[in-house]
Design a protein that fits this description.
The structure is a single chain. The protein has 215 residues and is mostly helical. The longest helix is centred in the middle third of the chain and has 17 residues. 39% of the residues are buried.
Length: 215
């Protein structure tokens, strides 16, 4: 009979506590983090990741573990701390896909903190460094919404136009078309953009881009 994630977590914790200096303890801590994230226990997952990273400071998986730690902090609403951890992950990341995810996550955190100017700067960098990635439509759309929050309607319209030109069949293009139409009306230009409430993701999570699969 298959064990539940909670039962697996308990078994892995036993390995870590009973054999703390075993090489298996490090792997058990890493697996603990995965199962804890699976059940939404992000604090427990982060603690397990801290244990794994402390035991294997030179592990080639360090950037990936830091990414997971950043994800846990973001889920816990600790966006400022998450930004710092994502930046640490970027420093040692050689995989372009994970680097893209880290930069995208930093932008998400700035949006959640209502740091719209910093978010637009971060997304400018993403659009320049990853110009050929298929996951860009949500970033174009979210940057346009951030420009609206900053009352920079010209830049918002420009971003929506670029999105429509490059990805006309995407879901985000439909939303951009609607925002562009609203901005063309003087009465509607002052209406608040459709950014999500604080704490909600501004665009799809990096591992599930809208309208395109990561290579």
């Amino acid at each position: 009979m298959a064990q539940s994630p909670i039962e697996v977590l308990s078994a892995l914790e036993s390995v870590v506590s009973e054999y703390p200096y075993s090489r298996w303890a490090t792997e058990a801590a890493r697996r603990m983090a995965e199962y804890a994230m699976m059940i939404g226990d992000y604090e427990r997952a982060r603690e397990a990741l801290q244990t794994a990273m402390a035991r294997r400071p030179n592990s080639p998986d360090m950037p990936a573990m830091k990414m997971q730690s950043g994800d846990c902090l973001r889920e816990l609403g600790r966006h400022g701390e998450a930004i710092e951890v994502y930046r640490e992950a970027l420093n040692g990341e050689t995989d372009p896909r994970r680097a893209f995810q880290a930069e995208q996550s930093i932008a998400l955190c700035h949006v959640a903190l209502k740091q719209y100017y910093l978010a637009t700067e971060q997304m400018d960098g993403i659009l320049q460094r990853y110009a050929n990635r298929p996951e860009l439509p949500p970033i174009y759309l979210t940057q346009g919404l951030c420009f609206e929050e900053l009352n920079d309607f010209a830049k918002a319209e420009a971003r929506y136009g670029e999105l429509l030109a490059r990805f006309p069949q995407s879901l985000e293009a439909e939303l951009a078309r609607a925002r562009k139409a609203d901005l063309a009306s003087p009465l509607l230009k002052s209406a608040p953009p459709a950014l999500p409430p604080p704490g909600a993701p501004a665009f799809p999570a990096p591992w599930a881009p809208s309208g395109a699969a990561a290579p």
